[in-house]
Amino acid sequence: MNVLVFNCGSSSLTFKVYEQGSSEIFLVVLSGKAHRVGVKGSESSFVEYNYRGNISKDVVNIPNHRKAANLVLKFVKENNIEIDCIGHRFVHGGQYFQKTSMLGKEELKKLEACIPLAPIHNPISLAVIDESTAFYPDLPQYVTFDSAFHSTIPEHAFTYALPKNIINKFGFRKYGFHGLSYSYVSKEVSYYLGVSKEKLKIIACHLGTGGSSVVAIKNGKSIDTSMGYSPLPGLMMSTRSGDVDPMLSIYLMAMYAYKSDEIMDLFNKKSGLLGVSGFSSDIRDIIKDFGEKENAQLAFDMYVHRLKKYIGSYVMSLGGLDALIFTDDIGVKNWLLREKVCENMQWCGISLNKETNKNANIQELTLISAENSKTKVVSIPTDEEKSILHEGIKLMKGRVK
Amino acid sequence: MILLFNSDLTGMPWKKMEESPAGNEAPEAIGYFLHHGGEKITQTVSILSPKDISKLPETIKYLPEHNDLTIKTIKSCILKYPQSKHVLFCDTAFFSDMPLKAATYAIPYKLRKKGIKKFGGYGLCHQWAYEKAQKLSRKKLEKVLSVYLGNYTNIAAIKNGEPLETSVGFTSVEGIPSSTSCGDIDPTILFQLNSAGMSFKEVNQLLSEKSGLTGLAAWPAGKKCSYLDVIGDKKLSDIKDFFIYNIMKYIGAFISVNGGVDAVIFESEHIKESKGIINELCGRLEFLGVKKRDVFRFEYIRWNVMLEKIKNLI
Lengths: 401, 314
Description:
The complex is a heterodimer.
Chain A: E1 2-8, E2 13-20, E3 26-35, E4 46-51, E5 54-59, H1 65-78, E6 85-90, E7 101-102, H2 105-113, H3 121-135, E8 141-145, H4 155-158, H5 164-170, H6 179-193, E9 201-207, E10 212-218, E11 221-225, H7 247-256, H8 260-269, H9 272-277, H10 283-288, H11 296-318, E12 323-327, H12 328-333, H13 335-341, H14 354-358, E13 366-367, E14 376-380, H15 384-396
Parallel strand pairs in A: 1-6, 6-8, 9-12, 12-14
Antiparallel strand pairs in A: 1-2, 2-3, 3-4, 4-5, 7-8, 9-10, 10-11, 13-14
Helix pairs in contact in A: 1-3, 6-15
Chain B: E1 2-6, E2 14-17, E3 29-34, E4 45-47, H1 50-55, H2 64-80, E5 85-90, H3 100-103, H4 109-112, H5 123-136, E6 143-149, E7 154-159, E8 162-166, H6 188-195, H7 200-209, H8 212-217, H9 227-232, H10 237-258, E9 263-268, H11 275-283, E10 295-299, H12 302-313
Parallel strand pairs in B: 1-3, 3-5, 6-9, 9-10
Antiparallel strand pairs in B: 1-2, 4-5, 6-7, 7-8
């Protein structure tokens, strides 16, 4: 069985084709990523392909995820790469989906009903699904959900202090996201440290070029995370505001006659690093312009400050800390960010080895804490596609020859 | 005689403190309490000058009912008692020089320039408590957490006497859930409620008057659930767990940005009743090496602190 996996980030589209070897071993025959999808910035967008070791780069305008998926599917078809099914990542399944599901007409309707829950992600995942169906109308497709990993969060942590009847009627609670990534990195780190995950208190920071979140993991289970009912709250992100006073929107509507969808758009697409810096949603642009542009430093400092707050909160939730994990693009590639976050964190046992941190390998797990650091600090690239593949293998067994 | 005013939702309660034997003469000083001083009022306690008074109307937009009433009271008292000292207390002023990285929301500049930032609250309480703890302590208190426990539970991080963080945001709704307001929630929820047919006026009322501890308790006939109920009623242990968890998250967050903790100060109007919850919170801080001698407990009665401050001024 060959599986094409699509992994939609808010500003990227990662893809992999896995080919089943003689046994249960799956090999990656094609991998790559469409970068800066729909991003405004100084650099242009492009797709990277690695097809059986041949690396190519296609610099092309990618205004949206449908176009990104189109480019990948064309590549697959033109190179006669055989695929038996397509796996997708869907951020928010709300009350409709608690586990990985095959895609049919019914499911598609339910996915559409989920759009308002994650107004940035859900529509782009749907666009990729749509484009896939147009290319391969007869191939089976399945959908994995990011919220599943957080189903273990206890009531005191997932509850919002709203009237009970409203909570029950709407299903308002913290769901949490980036579950596929957290599942992968926490397993890898516990394996690396040689300690079973049942004995570890872990905080993992998934810092993506689009969305970012933090999770507290105890005994291998998520006990709290920074995103909420939707992927809007929590950390400051590239264009999302993260935590804001819930009354802000009401104030803006009452005093300045903003419309509700205008505010949702501002909070989701024009806030975060972009909103504070005023010129870029890309943290690399912002670091480049320290001292040049007025709010570059402020945007970076806020990003660090807010991440430190969440780490502190979760040290309390866990009652200690054994490992701090940085993952995904910003987490793995940005040594300055890691250095600043780990500054003055001796209170919870963190002390960084500045040299190894600066030279951390972005391709593989790197231990970046000092030798005497009570808490181990690790930088590790995530592999959500692997999680999506495994979900698919479980589901497809018996379906496809 | 000293006269104190403190607006609340029911109107303008006032107190005559220390009646002078002469009886009907003009008060020596009059104190006014402003909950929200916006961007213009940056002194926690100040003797009002005509220039200050001209700044006051700009604060109305942040807390219309309260501030309008307070400003009217100030103006009529000044007319009636021109000889008295008029003293303004402002509960957001302490946080006016909080670092930008803490006070700024990650929203576009065109919204921030409308005066949207974290203003904080209970500044009089936190400043007073810090000063009092520092006087009692032998060592210099660099990294301090100040925790106000009550119907508006909130926390401040203080570094070398300066404000570093606060759980209160642009309004007092953000932060730890209060007796009736929701605290931190996903802002998407407001829009979900609205698209289900609730007007934003109704959403506002729901989040500020029917949520919080009261919303979760869901008592019949809209009966309010207070801080004292939650810490005292064993049947509310789930809500108490939730409440304590939310406090602990802020405590952790603020220890983190402060790089550690030298002292934890608890203030409450109900300090005796709060013994249990304070012990429980301290228990959860033990693993960080927070000792009994690092913990302070003060009874905070706003009227008394206002009186104490006015006496120092006159």
